[in-house]
Amino acid sequence: MVRTIISLDPKEKAWLDRQARRAGVSMTELVRLAIRHMREQDQAEFHELLERTRGIWRKGDGLSYQRRLREQWP
């Protein structure tokens, strides 16, 4: 693991300590869990975006279109 130092407002640190006690974990573990949760949520949102936008291209073969555009590049 990599050690990281962060600066927190005293009120934020107190809140974080209370949340860790309620969860029965160390403050450090709570931060790890929060980061893991944020990453999973970010991944889920990305996959949801892909699902919502799949199939909206209606101008033929997308790869052929990209190649034609790239041929115009200097």
Describe this structure in words.
By secondary structure, this protein is mainly alpha-helical. It has one domain. The chain is built from 3 helices and no strands. It is elongated, with a radius of gyration of 22 Å. The termini are far apart. The model has no long low-confidence stretch (mean pLDDT 94).
Task: Name a few traits of the molecule.
74 residues, mainly alpha, 3 helices, elongated
Low-pLDDT windows of residues:
none
User: Would you tell me the overall average pLDDT?
Assistant: 94
Instruction: Report the end-to-end length measured between terminal Cα atoms.
Output: 46 Å
Percentage of residues in strands? under 5%
Biggest sheet layout: none
- The number of helical segments is 3
Give, in order, the helices and strands.
Answer: HHH
The geometry reads as: elongated
Whole-number total of structural domains: 1
Rounded radius of gyration (Å): 22 Å
Count every beta strand, where a strand is a DSSP E run of 2 or more residues. Answer: 0
- Output the structural class: mainly alpha
Helix content: 55-70%
